Amino acid sequence: MSASPQAPTLQPRTIDEVVAAVRETPRLLPFGGGTKPALSLAPPGCASLGLCGLSGILEYDPGEYTFTALAGTRLSEVAAALAANGQYLPFDPPFADAGATLGGAVGAGLSGAARQRYGGVRDFILGVRFVTGAGELARAGGKVVKNAAGFDLPKLFAGSLGRLGVIVEVSFKVFPRPPRTATLRAVFPDLGPALGALVRVNQAAFDVEALDLEAPGVLWVRLGGSADTFTERMERLARLTGGVTTVLTEGSDQAAWERLQLRLLPPGSTALLVKVPVTAMAIPELDRLLGQAGADRRYGAGGNVAWITWPGTAAELDRFLRTQRLAGLVIQGAAGTPLLGATRGDNFRNRVKAALDPEGRFPGYH
Amino acid sequence: MLASLAKIFPPDRFLASAAGTAPFECDGLTAFHARPLAVVMPETREEVVAAVKWCWENRVPFVARGSGTSLSGGSVPVAGGIVIALNRMNRILRLDPVQRIAVVEPGAINTAVSQAAARHRLYYAPDPSSQTICTIGGNVAFNAGGAHCLKYGMTSNHVIGLTVVLPDGEVAELGGESLESVGPDLTGVYVGNEGLFGVAVEITLRLLPMPETYRTLLAAYDRLEAAGDAVGKVVAAGFLPGAMEIMDRLAIEAAEAAVHPGYPRDATAILIVELEGEKAGVDVEFARLNEVIRGTGAHDIRIARDNDERLLFWKGRKSAFSAVGRLSPDYIVQDGVVPRGKLGEALREIERMGRERGIRVANVFHAGDGNLHPLILYDGRQHGALEAAESLAGDILRLCLRLGGSITGEHGVGLEKRAFMAEMFAPADLAVMQRLRRALDPRALSNPGKMFPDGSAPALTAHGMHPLEKAGVISRE
Ligand SMILES: Cc1cc2nc3c(=O)[nH]c(=O)nc-3n(C[C@H](O)[C@H](O)[C@H](O)COP(=O)(O)OP(=O)(O)OC[C@H]3O[C@@H](n4cnc5c(N)ncnc54)[C@H](O)[C@@H]3O)c2cc1C
Fold it and tell me: Could you tell me if the ipTM is greater than 0.85?
């Protein structure tokens, strides 16, 4: 499915055209693949700057574990090029099959289940070229895996939601993909013991590729490596988790994680699809309240994120998150502004915003 | 004017005499000296805020300081400014094994975090060689690295939350206790700011479970370039080692003389490769690694039989820097990065440049990251020797840029490499960074004169060992 809530009004094909578009348009918001509608929909009076015309992998040397591509490049294209060399995007950006672009993945700051192993999008971005709100084309970071020169603006663009500048080119670190994967499913009567098992796995010296918890009591643990190690490792893992365990390999391993992937809500749904960073300790209370509110939820990244389908309004969600002292990002559903709840560092972020977008060409965060 | 600052701190934590400020006048890069107006030693966040506000109101520049081990002049005071020394704020405030985090004050020593976490079988991954003495605050400001960065990254990949005092005294809370976040990654942009974004007063670190096992091998080569090329082959074969380090002949000889690690005597270069993780997986991978290394032209391959032998491999490596330093009265360390595939070429070029100019260069470095640490030896008493060494150091950085790399992998720009920022970045890139800095520090009071190619530099004198290295307390990589 290629979601396209609205055709972008501006369609630059070169970086120069992006610069010109930014300089000539008083209010605009970048638009990648449109897979995260709440993030790509331009507010009223704001033009939509489509980046899909700016596509292609510019440099990829598998021996360097790095690549550089234009921002409108589809994640699926990147994934295919990497897979041909036994590599992958370890932060596992969601919506790759739905047409998400590299720039959109950075801007949204979303990482998928496999981020458990080595880290999220912010941990793999190395360099960025961008157009500021003042219409300057600038570059920060580098193309090598290690670099400490200048401020780390590439990380700042992770999660920037198109509001600090237009990303036109990005460089990433990548890793070799585990040759094989297998998954342990451990089923518990309710959340308490399932969460206990999640914490034990998190603390143990297991090299876990993915660790998700489906409320109330299903824990999913994925291991990677060579297939002949799985029997022994799965036995140890199952002893550690407890619960009723099943090992899934090959097709059933694949199918489990495809099902667990972050997905858009069905057309016509009025609910909100939301990302909420959490900690394992906060999950029991949060889960109880979400259950009361009738919200579907799942916990990813070893209990560091809640993916929530919120049945109420954005205002209700905002209030709910504030009472829990949590922040949220609305990915789908009309929210007004995508950032809700008790966000942190607003004073710092406002200064950053003023520096990169002095004229307020891109929408604000609140 | 100083009287009002002196009122904030008791006399034993406010130093303004020449004798009092002397220990704070330089850092690990001993080439630069500057005399501060005063040194204050806060014990609480409130005292940091008060000191910063005093600087803001009186328009006096300040430099936050951890242990002063910066190798790029980052913690050299600003003449006539205030040093905010954070060593007394060194508590580990909270260690949460469930969330796998440690919340620390900025003056906490790097190794103290791992020591505190050890009873939960957790550790703090970034391991700069100065780790027994440098502070987490300094690590944050410089995005410090170490020998184990390839797999789990630098400091910035392990900092998830910060409380910071901005240069006008405003406090900001960035990130939090979750590994995930929403909105722009403010924690990420704070790390590596080189002291230009005020003072970090509380830092939340992520901890990792200790690996179940390590497997380490050491391969000897007839040519340095061959060792460099071997790194590319290991990576191309799909390995992700925890560490991959190279030493050249000069470094090997020096290490042998200093700590007798028993390295192959006839080697022109050695490569150390270490795998870590679950035993079942690592054993399989290690067998395959041996195959690959055999195909790289190594004439001797040694495998650490046990943890003692592994530690011996590392002892030689970790001491090599200071060991080489003892071969020469003075030296400069460079920190440029090249793409891994260009390591062989870069090493050949450095060797050629050194030979042509009659300057000895030793190489001990983080090969897996392409992060070179050429050690340029010279005798500061000889007329023009420092200038010749500086000129070679500069040409090595230019070589790194030409090969598509960076002027610094982990030591930062500081005072030392300011001029090279304009060679790595275009004026527009620097203008955006400056605007960001001015938005956070409108009066440019926080560590001014560092990172950006403006401002006047204190006089260059001579490079040499850090006083603590001379005393044998620390060694460098
Ligand atoms: C022998 C030796 C070996 C070394 N090995 C390595 C290595 O392997 N890898 C590596 O990366 N580096 C290495 N270094 C460099 C150095 O140790 C690191 O840069 C370290 O992070 C500095 O820590 P520090 O506490 O000494 O900070 P300082 O030198 O005191 O300060 C460094 C910078 O941080 C700023 N700062 C300090 N505290 C704060 C704070 N709380 N808030 C804001 N800014 C602050 C200062 O203003 C300054 O700009 C080595 C240095 C030596 C002398």
Answer: yes
